[in-house]
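Obj.: predict assembly geometry.
Materials: sequence records (below).
Method: joint structure prediction, all chains together.
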Amino acid sequence: MNRPGDSPPPADRRINFAFTRDVASNPAASSGAIPLPPARTFRRYPPERMRPGQQIPVTIAQSATLFAGDDMAIWINGFTVYDTGLAFRIEGRIRNSTPSTQDSATLLGPLNVGRMTRPHSNESIQLTLTFQDGTTVSSVGSNQLVPDDPTAPWLDGGGASSSRLASHADYFLTPLPPAGPLLIEIAYPHFGIPATRTTIDLSELSSASDNIIRLWHNNTQKR
Amino acid sequence: MPRDLPLNEIPSLLTVTTPLAVNAAAAIWIDNILVYSTGIAFTVNAEFRQEFEPGTVNLGTYAQPHPAPSLQLTASYSDGRKATNTTDFRAEPADPNEPFLLSPNSTSGPHSASATYYLTPFPAPGALRLALTCPILDIDETTLTFDEVDLQQAHHNITPLWQENS
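Observations (raw structure tokens):
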């Protein structure tokens, strides 16, 4: 009879578990049995949706104050016409309230006038454009994916920046919308800004497009 | 900073219709000209041919770690005062009436470059001349003149928003 201490205790028995797929009867075949993940269908950002290079665009001197309140303002100053689309910048400002009161915009800030909602916690401005022919394009909702149809309008939100009091975001709308009035609707529920509409006159769009200086024929794009 | 863009007004847009300079390999133009109560902001843009390969084109004034500035810019007020972009970044003159050219942002790519500038204070009555030279792009001195009437009209069209509390 073994008494405790007469012999070393049995080694701890270890059982290692691993969960595997069924091993095929043919080991050679099973060596490659771990399936590859499905091919990811990355789609390169379509060049025609990017601001083109190698040309001097034309500025249409149309400005629009999209919202102006006691402690916030949002506006667009000018539209830049490229041969493939229309660029514009949305600017936002928040009043520097010192000390910040409970309902001041400073406490809600910063404004995110771009279309990327992360890493921002304040969501983003909701921007919808309606062209003269009734076509609409929006920065929100299902329109986040570049459409396959190159003639379908697409609003790209490129660079954006926001600090406590000042924000801006650059947009590029492709293809060029029809000349005529452009209805701009914004809303920003986080800041209590209801749907607000402003119409600007883009009747100069056709002549502006004609005045673009094409420099060289290279397919370069920039965002 | 006293020389920064004012944040309590909507600036007025001024447009120019002609590019500053175009040669066989490069082009430079100014756009996004915004008139504030305290000065004028604008963007200098350059495009150059792919084959040209001038190296990194730095249209701004940051020298480190970027290559040396490629652009020489001089603003001349009608009363004789001048500002150049060769002043060290943030080396603001103590005298608020002395013109100063600040370049807050610049970008550079293989075929294009741009830089924003802010000229303070708002020019004295009269025309404002911007002279620009960009040797790296073989662009000799070229001048853009802002007419006094256009400047004053733009200044008049600034939209004040609110009084700043601090």
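Conclusions so far: Residues 1-6 of chain A have pLDDT under 50 and may be disordered.
To do: check interface contacts against the pulldown list.
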